[in-house]
Amino acid sequence: MGAFRHSSSLQRVAKQLGDRATLRVLGPDRKGIVAACSDLLNRHGCSIVSSEHYTDYSATPHSMLFQRILFDPEGLRDRSEVKTKVQELERKFGVKTKIDWRDKSPKVAVLVSKHDHCLWELLLRQQAKELDCEIPLIISNHENLRHVADTFQIPYYVFPVTPETKLEQEQAQLALIEAHDIDVIVLARYMQVLSKHFLSRYADSQIINIHHSFLPAFLGGRAYHQAHDRGVKLIGATAHYATLDLDQGPIIAQDVVAVSHRDGPHDFVRKGRGLERNVLVRALQAHLDQCVLVYNTKCVVFSD
Amino acid sequence: MGAFRHSSSLQRVAKQLGDRATLRVLGPDRKGIVAACSDLLNRHGCSIVSSEHYTDYSATPHSMLFQRILFDPEGLRDRSEVKTKVQELERKFGVKTKIDWRDKSPKVAVLVSKHDHCLWELLLRQQAKELDCEIPLIISNHENLRHVADTFQIPYYVFPVTPETKLEQEQAQLALIEAHDIDVIVLARYMQVLSKHFLSRYADSQIINIHHSFLPAFLGGRAYHQAHDRGVKLIGATAHYATLDLDQGPIIAQDVVAVSHRDGPHDFVRKGRGLERNVLVRALQAHLDQCVLVYNTKCVVFSD
Amino acid sequence: MGAFRHSSSLQRVAKQLGDRATLRVLGPDRKGIVAACSDLLNRHGCSIVSSEHYTDYSATPHSMLFQRILFDPEGLRDRSEVKTKVQELERKFGVKTKIDWRDKSPKVAVLVSKHDHCLWELLLRQQAKELDCEIPLIISNHENLRHVADTFQIPYYVFPVTPETKLEQEQAQLALIEAHDIDVIVLARYMQVLSKHFLSRYADSQIINIHHSFLPAFLGGRAYHQAHDRGVKLIGATAHYATLDLDQGPIIAQDVVAVSHRDGPHDFVRKGRGLERNVLVRALQAHLDQCVLVYNTKCVVFSD
Amino acid sequence: MGAFRHSSSLQRVAKQLGDRATLRVLGPDRKGIVAACSDLLNRHGCSIVSSEHYTDYSATPHSMLFQRILFDPEGLRDRSEVKTKVQELERKFGVKTKIDWRDKSPKVAVLVSKHDHCLWELLLRQQAKELDCEIPLIISNHENLRHVADTFQIPYYVFPVTPETKLEQEQAQLALIEAHDIDVIVLARYMQVLSKHFLSRYADSQIINIHHSFLPAFLGGRAYHQAHDRGVKLIGATAHYATLDLDQGPIIAQDVVAVSHRDGPHDFVRKGRGLERNVLVRALQAHLDQCVLVYNTKCVVFSD
Questions:
Q1: In terms of CA atoms, which chain B residue is nearest residue A296?
Q2: What is the ipTM score, two decimals?
Q3: Considering only CA atoms, which of B128, B286, D158 is closest in space to residue C270?
Q4: D261 interface with C at CB cutoff 8 Å
């Protein structure tokens, strides 16, 4: 199995103990499902490192169960057997499950325009092993940030998008993304609205966007200027999965920072940069550590 | 002059030094206004305790100056002379000024419905001398909170409001408020929309409302339920001056608190209670300490 | 079984679903313990509402497991049978367990001196059903806060403590506390150091103290004055279990608030009041909701 | 006069309005000093952009005045005349003053060891014009971070320090620092204790250090490990001026972040990295924008 990687707190402490895998379960709440999952892993030689389980009794039409188990598969001889057994649980309880063996890092494509702060943050955090992923390529509609990519020796591809060429360029982007076998797309202040076609290719909560406001306040463009006009005393940033409804996708993380009358629109933008990069990294970390479960328009975000 | 009162940090430290007064100035930025104000106070025997001054160069059609001077009028013989001189400055520089001698506490009327948390907070903070005001009466449209008022021996008046009786009841409320010579009206989760008539009687930034969301998100009623439906990760509260545009008045203070998937709508409400009372008190403190200057739809909030 | 009580988020949502109980497990990490607990509860008709489980690999001499299961015992016929089976698990795995059926509210005694802010907060939160407990008595070494107790019709006992009478008074306090069958003692700014004798009677993490600093900075008395002298830019408060080592007990909760050069020692005290009451309530909530597991000198605090 | 630079909020808004200068005043509180300063600037053609003034009545042996005026010297013909007049004020009122014309950026030397996070942050913020300074050189006792310096094309000098060579190496460092006419030295996790000799050469609040704890908790080395052992629920970082008393210098900025039982010592270190870089940048910004006035062992930090 793969070498130890530093994505999470437990992995780090547990360096000598081997790799970690996760089992996530989502579905209608049924008596016995928690015990069944723990028992299954246990019987196949896996130790449970940590687990979290939550039941949403306000969900309709029936209560929903969300579960995340981080386990040590060291004593496991046959992965496929566990997989088969988990599929049996799926059928028996009518739930959805996802196993991640975490023996190779997920691949992340970063899309940017001209703002560099989120890109720097992502690349520095990945380099510091705070993001458990590979970043094999950066895509932009402008040349501006090539030097950042170069610093980390990551290929940088430019697709100049115009209203006329947009769909065509997106096709080329998608081809590149698929060629690299990308797992997650991060829109790091990418100033283009993705087409329905693009979004539906990665519709399974695989595109993370950072919006420069405390959603649902200040939808759309020039959010900081809207906020300044309104005279708010806090500004926010929101990381969410991109869906067909612009700025309406499930929220993964949010944060705010204080502003005062002394702060002009430029200061909102400056303070917002600090916020955006932090919120985006926090959301991506949660995603990469398999802490997020999406249900309807909301995210359950477990602690790692 | 009045006895020492504990409203602000400087007053407290300066106990032996006598009272404090404020001079606030708002208007088009003109060279010399800052020096003129300091000089005027100085020449009349007042010592400047602290001052803050800010110029908004983004204001239109011309830059705007905002100034707050906290001064010690101990050495002042004749207030009316200072008043006259300040009025001369008003004319010379084309600004608005406001002097508060702070020798008697402002009078606050609190309007409530059924939620008690903001009312308790206001009364406890006033009792602890953290709010520099008197609260001579509490007005409600329900009997529910009479016991809270009784605890602090404050008269509690009930005006049951129905769509039919609303204007009539407001007239009676206004008569009572005027009879008590009220300076500030605090809507401490008062669940009625005030009429245009009522609002225009206290239109000079004299009505403070607490809204249970991070405005401008989730306007109107059931804000926490709206927030829960959207799946936000932070909830907020906003204190603002009430104006004719519902939930659109100048924002004085805002704050947020984290929520998670474990929090149902009831938890949003519970966590929100803690927020609302804090934000409302902070806004009222700023108002009572003469730290707020309103310009167009925004508040300049100086530190005390 | 007892009526529904509003202590926690899940209980509130689950109003119609019956009561909630918790099983907490602490001990050396053994393969199979998680599955065994879930399975046991399941086989006896209990549904798991939520659970959290964490393994501390840095503990010495061996890894330690911490687990909290919130379950619905509605379908359970015989509590004693579950108890017996859990004791079998204890022996088999060498762990400690604790079951709380939560069908009656824990009883809390509050000890105070002259500061009223923590006492008001505790009583208001309990009244608002945000603290799942009864408060049958308040003990003080001064008469000062009797009016607060009277407001909530709670008996208030005064034991004037002097160096000479201290041990004798403590005996009387302990007799009263035991007569009321108290589960938790809260030192809500009680300005006396408890004797070794008193502490050892409630040594099993049953005494919660609020210290007015960000421990371990500023141990002992006049913490805010120490902080002011040092020129800190944040002040803190710490809730911890009281142990024989003054201010050294396991920390349950901490928080901070910003201060500036404008804040004198009195402002530190004032701002600290807001902090202390919040941190104390948060710690007591975690304790009452059986979210805390103490190991050596530290607390594992699970989310409710 | 120098070109516009983007250090502060007001400068940015005021792009077309010319440069900004500051006058800072510190000394015993005397009636008339505020008016005198404003008046002086005004009479010489300077417009006051913003000002803040604070009197510390708790200072001993007499009240202390702190003042910062940000002014626009556009209409000023003769700087030396203003300088002379300000010196007259110094003598008349017995205060200390400092004028910064801000027409050239201060020069900052960054000292590092092996941790890169603070260095990246300083260089990226300087590049984004969020730090109003030049960084002409980076000094280290290790080769490790040369690639970071190279990315920004900043000279990187290595002085391998051993107990034997320490004083000698410091001499060489000081020679280099003086040759570059450095105004501020930033210890960006420089893991060496500077000698008394070095410190006294830049004793006038010119050396800023970042300490990885919430001072005064956890002095000295391995602060995060100390914090983990104590079981704290928040960790902190502190930026302060370095003085002869290790970790005892005047505090400029502090912040904290929450930790939980899930966080091992490595997670404290990881979370602390985010804190340290933010706190250090905030402190350096305040210093560079001439917002800090040091008195005894404390900093008055005005808003910009």
A1: B231
A2: 0.90
A3: B128
A4: yes
Phi, psi values for residue A44, rounded to 5°: -100, 20
List pLDDT tens digits, range B99-147. Answer: 999 888 999 999 999 999 999 999 999 999 999 999 999 999 999 999 9
D300 phi and psi angles, rounded to 5 deg: -90, 120
Instruction: Count helices and strands (H / E) in chain A.
Output: 9, 13
Q: Which positions of D are catalytic?
A: 247
β-bridge pairing A64-72 and A21-28: antiparallel
Cβ–Cβ < 8 Å for B27, B95: yes
What angle in degrees, to the nearest 10, is found between the helix axes of D223-230 and D265-288?
130
Distance from CA of residue D169 to its chain's centroid? 24
Say which range, A246-255, D163-172, D218-227, D236-245, has the weakest mean pLDDT: D218-227
Identify the active-site residue in B19, B29, B72, B247: B247
| C-beta atoms of A34 and C48 within 8 A | yes
Q: What's the rounded Cα separation, in Å, for the pair D304 and D51?
A: 9
Structural domains for chain D: 9-100 (3.30.70.260), 107-301 (3.40.50.170)
Q: What pLDDT shows up at residue D31? A: 81
Dihedral angle, C-alpha C207, C210, C211, C215, nearest 10 °: 80
Nearest chain B alpha carbon to C275: B278
Torsion of CA C21, C208, C276, B188, to 10 degrees: 40
SS3 assignment, position D165: coil
Task: Please check whether residue B224 touches A, CB under 8 A.
Answer: no
Q: How far apart are CA A12 and CA C83, in angstroms?
A: 37
Res B8 pLDDT > 80: no
Say if residues C130 and C5 touch (Cβ distance below 8 Å). Answer: no
Which of the following is catalytic: A72, A247, A289, A304? A247
Q: What SS3 class is residue A139?
A: strand
Residue D8 pLDDT > 70: no
| Selection from B182, B301, B191 nearest residue B240 by Cα | B301
Give the Cβ contact number of residue D200 at 10 Å. 12
Instruction: In whole angstroms, give the CA distance from residue D92 to residue D89.
Output: 5
Q: Which residues pair with A257 in a beta bridge?
A: A235
Identify the CA nearest to C286 among candidates C159, C136, C156, C106. Answer: C106
Which range among C139-153, C248-262, D32-46, D193-207 shows the weakest confidence by mean pLDDT? D32-46
pLDDT bin (cut points 50, 70, 90) of residue B235 is very high
Residue with tokens 């430290």: B13
Produce one character per residue of C166-183: b if its CB has 16 or more CB atoms within 10 Å, e if not.
beebbeebbebbeeeebb
pLDDT in the model for residue B77: 87
DSSP structure class, residue C188: S
Question: How far lies A20's CA from each of A101, A283, B133, C146, C216, in Å?
Answer: 7, 20, 60, 57, 35
Within 8 A of D54 by CB-CB distance, chain C residues are: 261-262
Find where tokens 């906003």 sit. B238
Q: Which residue type, as a one-letter code, is found at position C104?
A: K
Give residue A231's region: left, alpha or beta (phi > 0; psi -120 to 50): left
Q: For residue B209, which phi and psi values (nearest 5 degrees)?
A: -115, 150
User: Is residue D237's pLDDT more than 60?
Assistant: yes
Question: How big is chain B, counted in residues?
Answer: 304
A247 is catalytic: yes
Residue A16: DSSP 8-state: G
* SS3 assignment for D56-76: ECCCCCCCEEEEEEEEECCCC
Work out the minimum CA distance from B63 to partner chain D, whole angstroms: 10
d(CA D115, CA D265) in angstroms, rounded, equals 16
Interface of A with D in 90-109 (CB under 8 A): none
Cβ-proximal residues to B117 (8 Å cutoff; 6+ apart), any chain: B189, B273, B274, B276, B277, C124, C128
For residue A301, the cross-strand partners are A292
